[in-house]
Design brief:
The chain is an all-alpha fold. 86% of the residues lie in helices and 0% in strands. It has one domain. Helix 8 runs antiparallel to helix 9. The radius of gyration is 27 Å and the shape is rod-shaped.
C-alpha cells in the first residue's frame, strides 16, 4: 500500500487527507443524526402529558431543551405560547432554523470533498502524462521504466480520487435526505403542539 501511495506522487497526500476527513464526517453525522438524538418519537406525548397535569415548570423546560433538537423547538414554542398562536409559531420557526443549521453541519465540507477529489485525481493524471511526454522528448521511447512511472502516477491518482469521491458523494446525498426527513418530522411535531395547545384554548374560550 505504501508503495502504491508513493507511486502516485505528492498529490496522493491531499487525496488521503480528504479521505480521512470524509470518513470522520460520516461517522460523526451517523452518530449525530440518530432519531432518538434529534426527534424522539414519544417526546410530544410526554410534553402534552406534563401540560395537562400542569407539571411543565422551568426545570422541565430546561430538561426539554437539553434533551434533543426537537425538545429545543418545542420549548421555544411553549415559552411564547402565552403570547398567542402567531408568537408561538414565530418562536418555533426561529428555533427550527437554528436546528436545521445544526443538522446540516459538516455536510458542505463533505460535498466539497466529493467534488474536489476527482479533480485532484485528474490533476495527477495531467502531471503524470506531462512526465511521460518529457521523458519521451528527452530519452525517446526506449526507457520503459521512465514511461511506466509517469503512466502509473497518472492512473493511481485518478483511481484514488474517484475511490474517495464516490462514497463521499453517496453519503452526502444520504445525509441530505436524512436531514430533510428529520426537519419534516420536527415541523410536523411542532405544528401538532401548536394545534393541541391553542386549539384547546380556543375551544375553552368559545364555551
Amino acid at each position: 500500500m505504501l508503495e502504491l501511495v508513493q507511486s502516485g506522487g505528492w498529490l496522493m497526500l491531499p487525496i488521503i487527507i480528504c479521505s480521512i476527513l470524509a470518513a470522520a464526517i460520516c461517522v460523526e453525522r451517523f452518530w449525530t443524526l440518530g432519531s432518538d438524538r434529534i426527534a424522539p418519537k414519544q417526546l410530544l406525548a410526554e410534553v402534552w402529558t406534563h401540560i395537562k397535569r400542569e407539571q411543565l415548570d422551568g426545570q422541565r423546560l430546561r430538561e426539554l431543551r437539553a434533551g434533543s433538537l426537537l425538545g429545543q423547538i418545542l420549548a421555544s414554542g411553549l415559552v411564547s405560547a402565552r403570547h398567542g398562536r402567531d408568537a408561538m409559531k414565530e418562536s418555533i420557526e426561529e428555533a427550527g432554523a437554528q436546528a436545521t443549521h445544526e443538522l446540516e453541519r459538516f455536510l458542505t465540507p463533505l460535498g466539497t470533498i466529493a467534488s474536489i477529489t476527482p479533480l485532484l485525481g485528474l490533476l495527477g493524471t495531467v502531471i503524470g502524462m506531462i512526465k511521460v511526454f518529457n521523458a519521451i522528448m528527452l530519452e525517446g521511447t526506449g526507457n520503459a521504466n521512465v514511461l511506466a512511472g509517469g503512466i502509473s502516477e497518472a492512473l493511481i491518482t485518478t483511481a484514488a480520487g474517484i475511490s474517495v469521491a464516490i462514497p463521499a458523494l453517496i453519503f452526502y446525498r444520504y445525509f441530505n435526505r436524512r436531514v430533510d426527513e428529520l426537519v419534516l418530522t420536527m415541523e410536523q411535531e411542532a405544528a401538532r403542539l401548536v394545534e393541541l395547545l391553542h386549539g384547546e384554548r380556543e375551544a375553552e374560550a368559545s364555551r
